[in-house]
């Protein structure tokens, strides 16, 4: 059975848990991270030198980095419907997964740490505003893309890209800031909310 190390309210752990539900994969999960066992312990560092969650253990195979984990699980456990083997279709899925991990995720970090986590290290108002502006710009990019597809991120079908993007939309909507009207993002959120796994791991009040 798969083992997932990480607390269930982590957005990166929730990527993996959501995919496991979509693929009907059985797993055991252990609480690691904020409020639980420390990922800086020697035991955890042995598995992941970055001291970050999640970590996946599949028998003797150990993997970290959430986007690498979901790609692996889709490849290993008959996830072709979510992660196409067609080179161009897969490239588009990877493009949006990487965009979330690099552009979108990095844009919200300072604002989230200030507005939600109340981090004493993130109290510079100028940097907060810059982060909000960058985050908003990226959400506007997503809104344009969703206007083109009128469904999911890469087209008519739900794919692996919708997992990190869908969780990011939940984070955007829950963070207390002034939100511009993004009709396509809202429609996308409503569409994802028809999926039981998204209701469990995405549209569940966790930020």
From TrEMBL:
- Give the UniProt family note: Belongs to the GST superfamily.
Organism equals Acinetobacter wuhouensis
Task: Give any Pfam family that matches.
Answer: GST_N
- In its keyword annotation, does this UniProt entry include Manganese? no
Q: Give residue ranges for domain GST C-terminal.
A: 86-207
Domain GST N-terminal: where? Answer: 1-81
GO molecular-function terms, A-Z:
transferase activity
Could you list this entry's UniProt keywords, alphabetically sorted.
Transferase
Q: What name goes with this protein? A: Glutathione S-transferase
